[in-house]
Amino acid sequence: MKKIPLAKPDLSGNEIKYVNEVIAKQGRISSSGYYLDKFEGMAARRFKRKFALSCSNGTTALHLALLSLGIGPGDEVIVPTMTFAACAAAIVYCGARPVFIDSNLQDWTIDVLQLDAKKTSRTRAVLAVDLYGMPANYDILPAWCKKNKIYLIEDAAEAHGACFAGKPVGSFGQVSCFSFYGNKVLTTGEGGVCLTDDKALYNRMKVLKNHGMRSAGLYDHDIVGFNYRLTNLQAAIGCAQFERFNEFLAKREQLDRWYHEFLGGTEEIIFQKYDQKKISPVCWLFSCVVKKNSQLIRSKLTGKGIENRAFFKPLHLQKPYKRYCLNQKFPKAEYLYKHGLTLPAFIDLTKREIKRISDYLLASF
Ligand SMILES: Cc1ncc(COP(=O)(O)O)c(C=O)c1O
Asked: Is residue 164 in a domain?
């Protein structure tokens, strides 16, 4: 039986053409060139920001965002415990302390009702995550951050194309970050972008990502920087991906509809709850919560050749991060971890395959 992977990039547009062009004509295979400029322009326009800075991946994007805002030792950053480890790692790279916050059980993003309880005099930022394609609560977050003079950083790595109240994710943070890893809605293989409307922040991130040099080529280092650059080759792939963004989103909407058609109405399965008039999530990996412990169900699906995953293991349970939250409880994130299930979602996944996945899932209860 044909195996169904969890995710698969679609590189059947202009990707090969543009990469070949870089190799054959331009010779610019490193970190400057036509496609890098074009890619940044496409990202800025699409996510409605003044400035877009490409970088090597989503983790370096978060690191640059935090550093540009001056976050360092002694500072605290509120971050959901239910997210990928890169979010906490980037905070720790800066010498700051991650302050974990639980999720809400409706849409699984950060529980904004707990923000006040997590705030201290050291809180400098909230790192909000648009988890599994769902925008965080941007009715509350920007206003709460503004009122408390706290920065909002948005991690939209898993939600390219999602919208909240008509605005795209990526447009909410002082700095917003994306990943373009191979399993994301848009990919460059490895890659990231930082978006902002603040020129000073943009300039700071630009220097930081390029060895601390004010302008490329000058051996004049103002600060200790990093090499967090994306290559022109990767950006060439990214441009071809952006060209098909709308098509990708339409297809992912279709995948979501098919999953709901086959799995909806089953009491055993719970989907994210959200205001459908206001919020348009994107079907990144199709995610749901199963009432039974998902582990047994997952292994049955794996046995049928269907790749699947549990939700992220919450960061407060992870060895490097436990020490930041001793004696604190995160029951909702732990529930999601125990019951969460992510299923395949990629562009050429067919209705028939989704039926097959759904039938196996329903049979495994
Ligand atoms: C929410 C979130 N943030 C950050 C990252 C890190 O991105 P990258 O793998 O490109 O470093 C990921 C995963 O890829 C993610 O899911």
From this structure: yes
299 shares its domain with 160 = no
- Going by the DSSP 8-state scheme, the letter that residue 313 receives in this structure is P
Query: What pLDDT score does 357 carry?
Result: 98
Identify which has the larger pLDDT, 219 or 344. Answer: 344
Whole-angstrom CA distances from 125 to 77, 78, 218, 324 are 5, 6, 33, 16
Which atom of ligand 1 is found nearest the CA of 129?
A: 1
For ligand 1, whether the C-beta of 87 sits within 6 Å is yes
Whole-number Å distance between alpha carbons of 83 and 87? 7
Q: What is the pLDDT of residues 63-100, one digit of tens each?
A: 999 999 999 999 999 999 999 999 999 999 999 999 99
Q: Is the CB of 83 under 6 A from ligand 1?
A: yes
The number of C-alpha atoms within 13 Å of 137 and in the hemisphere containing its C-beta is 22
Tell how far the Cα of 180 is from the centroid of ligand 1, in angstroms.
8
192 lines ligand 1 (CB under 6 A): yes
Domain of 335 in residue numbering reads as 245-363
Nearest-CA residue for atom 7 of ligand 1? 58
- Residue 172: both structure tokens together: 């909410």
Q: What is the pLDDT of residues 129-169, one digit of tens each?
A: 999 999 999 999 999 999 999 999 999 999 999 999 999 99
Q: Does the CB atom of residue 136 touch ligand 1 within 6 A?
A: no
The span from the CA of 316 to the CA of 354, in Å, is: 34
296 within some domain: yes
Task: Judge whether 81 lies within some domain.
Answer: yes
Query: Measuring from atom 3 of ligand 1, which residue has the nearest CA?
Result: 157
